[in-house]
Amino acid sequence: MRWDDIKEGFRNFWQEFKSIKFGLFGLFLLFIFVIAVFINAYIVPFPEASKRWRDITYWEDNPVSAPPMWINYFSSMKRAPSSIISEYSLSEEKKGNLTLKKVVFEYKYLYDYPPIDIIFHCQIEGSPVIILSIERPDGKVVTLTKRAISKIDIRTLRISIGNDARAESYNFGIKFENPQQNRIERELIKPIQILFAEAKEGILVNPSFLKGTYKIIADIILPGLKDQVTDPSLFISGSVSGWLGTDSAKRDIWSGIIAGVKWALLIGLLTAFTSVSIGVIFGVVSAYLGGWQDSLMQRIFEIFVGVPLLPVLIVMSAIFRPNIWTMIIMMSCFFWVGPVKTVRSIGLQIKEETYIEAAKAFGASSSRIIFKHMIPLLIPYSFASMALYVPSAIIYEASISLLGLGDATIVTWGQILHDALRGGAVINGLWWWVIPPGLLIALMGMTFAFIGFAMDKILHPKLRTR
Amino acid sequence: MYWRYCLKRIIYGLVTFVILIFIFSALFNTTMEKTLRAQIEEEIRAETLKMDTRMSPEEITHFIAERRAFKQHLYHLDKPLWHRIVWRAINVLSLNFGKATIMKSSAGESDVWGIIAECLPRTILLFTTAICINIILGLWLGLKKAQKAGGLMDKTTSIGTMLVYGMPSWWLGMLVIMFFAYKLRLFPSGSLHSIPPPSGFAYYIDLLYHMTLPVLTLVAIGFWGSSYLIRNIVLSILQEDYIMATRTRGIPERKVLYGHAMRTAAPPIVTMALLSLLASVGGNIIFEGIFSWPGLGNLYWISIEQNDIPVLMGNLFVTTALYLAGLVILDLIYGFLDPRIKVGGRQ
């Protein structure tokens, strides 16, 4: 079989494939997945999610277990979403060596439920003093926290108002509260809720929130000329966050899901490719050689068929703690048995064809006959079965990861689900943490099922209609 | 002829099992011996604590060394590698899985075989129930689809098949628990029965109640695939010449389908049913962990969490045996239903 024949074959195949709608839909989905891998960095708010999934400092600003942003459309209570405010107005004043800087952020709060936390970030040099305060829409100004930085060359400063302004917000709230009726321990208050509440009775225990523009003001005192404060920014840690919310470790689930596409494709395609290749070659060789070699190979095949796949993979993963590559190898070691039986029976038919006999008569070697004359005929079949093996490879990896035995250096959908199960997402109804990863597994499976079934339909025209 | 075929197939199955056990023993030898050594040290420490306190330090060290040598000899740890592997494989084949490090059966024994034997019937109960319902539904839908192949119903349900093709059963389980058990509070979130278990007839009602959710999930995932397969099997039979011949004889369509096509379709359908049961053992097993159904699959979860290697290995051996037994039974039934098989192609 020459290269041109293969090309011709593919062209015919494509002609037929084009007429199967769900097959095309599958290809379309696959295309979207591949695109998602390539533009990964542009569609997620946390592009380093794949590398720093388990790095808590990367996620520390996010809210804990926040639902996705779009639930606001379905709910009468609008929650404040996460956002970054990097625009600010700056005024500067010099008094000798001393510099006074005033950075003002404006936050338009037009929601029914305030954010979880507000976090101030900046880069500092030297030993400045930073005073954070908030000016509310009703004109009241609350000083939140004062920080005098001791002399360290350069570093980043992070002030979480929710944590660091606990006492100040309590003192602010207690002025309006009726302490006899509404008693609350200082440790139990929610500072941000107090700061965003109307100044009236009930501010500490049952606040009603004040809409309007809040100004977060950072007064910066720079005692020396070398002292500097740069890149101030404000992170609003919302009560809803991102496209798919966050998990209990503050991770953005959308970023994790998109990072997982790459690994799912890699695991699925690579496992399917290696295992089907091994299986097809094994089957053809077994069919071609015949005799005792065939029987021997069939016995080996039968031993592998007798292996219960998932249990063995689980035990091997539990004991050897594989990384992603060894996991793919492990899966390929057991997956190859799938196509062998069919391939062998097809191979037995091809073997009897006259052109094989002719090739033998010309003195072609066995490997030449197998690889040049027999395997090319099986390429369409191999592709169809490859497509149908991709979902099972992904499911197996997900199942192993679900048990917590996955490769800890990457992020896969199975691992997200493992964390969800461990983090009590099922019990607490954190559906945005449970549904998306599984849905993506199912969607990826569906993609390849569409493609595989479409190929199957072309290869077995008998099954189309009556 | 049939009994010879049976015998051959059973012997093949046994040989495969023995070979697999040897392979597993070799593969996991290091880990198992590490656990065994740790267990021995633990036992010796317990013995020294119970000992006479008047012994001198030299005597104690001597005693410990003696006991260690004795135990290592007992567990064949002083023998060469191949000997240890063979010894372990033989142990496994005689159902002697050793003692669990942490886990205990509900009777309070730490014998691995006891722990597994307790879980085995529960797994079988859950999955066979699910598969039975699955096949009945699949048969009903598959025949409908085959009768009107290419019709609206056929097309929509075929798309349904592809939708659930890559869906993990345990994920659906998680959703189902979240919705039915925690949101609506209609069903229990898991386990075998309520605590304390009711007695008498109420026990079985309670068991059914606890089984509903996992079984429904398994059926919801499974019956699409089985109906699609049954459709394909029946459809290819309906195209045979003899079906055409029956039709020309004027035999009603119902009779053609149920009387003639089904007889030929029976062996592949039975195979399919058993294969999906086997696939459950091989693939759906961790599904149990989600529903905390205390079967073999749940045992994998617990033994991994508690790092109990002997239980994990014992569980693997039992699952393998179960799986292989299933394969053998499959072939026997197939041979029984389809006489062409048992004769063999070679004669």
Q: What is the compact description of this entry?
A:
The complex is a heterodimer of chains A (466) and B (347). Chain A is of the alpha+beta class. Chain A is built from 18 helices and nine strands.
Secondary-structure blueprint:
The complex is a heterodimer of chains A (466) and B (347).
Chain A (H helix, E strand, L loop, with lengths): L2 H16 L2 H18 L1 H4 L12 H4 L23 E3 L3 E7 L2 E12 L7 E10 L2 E7 L5 E8 L3 E9 H4 L1 H9 L16 H5 L16 E11 L5 E10 L15 H37 L1 H15 L3 H12 L3 H12 L1 H15 L2 H8 L4 H9 L4 H24 L10 H10 L2 H4 L2 H29 L7
Antiparallel strand pairs in A: 1-9, 2-3, 3-8, 4-7, 4-9, 5-6, 5-8
Helix pairs in contact in A: 2-8, 2-18, 8-9, 8-11, 8-12, 8-14, 8-15, 8-18, 15-16, 15-18, 16-18
Chain B lengths: L1 H26 L1 H22 L6 H18 L6 H13 L18 H36 L4 H14 L3 H15 L17 H38 L2 H8 L4 H32 L2 H4 L5 H10 L3 H29 L1 H5 L4
Walkthrough of the structure:
The complex is a heterodimer of chains A (466) and B (347). Chain A has 466 residues and is α+β, with helices and mostly antiparallel strands. In chain A, helix 8 packs parallel to helix 12. Chain A is built from 18 helices and 9 strands. In chain A, a hairpin with a 5-residue loop joins strand 5 (129-135) and strand 6 (141-148). Chain A is elongated, with a radius of gyration of 31 Å. Chain A starts with a helix and ends in a 7-residue tail after the last helix. By secondary structure, chain B is an all-alpha fold. Helices cover 78% and strands 0% of the residues of chain B. Chain B is built from 14 helices and no strands. Chain B has helices at residues 2-27, 29-50, 57-74, 81-93, 112-147, 152-165, 169-183, 201-238, 241-248, 253-284, 287-290, 296-305, 309-337, 339-343. Chain B is elongated. The two termini of chain B are 13 Å apart. The model of chain B has no long low-confidence stretch (mean pLDDT 84). At the A-B interface, helix 9, helix 10, helix 15, helix 16 and helix 17 of A face helix 1, helix 6, helix 7, helix 8 and helix 10 of B.
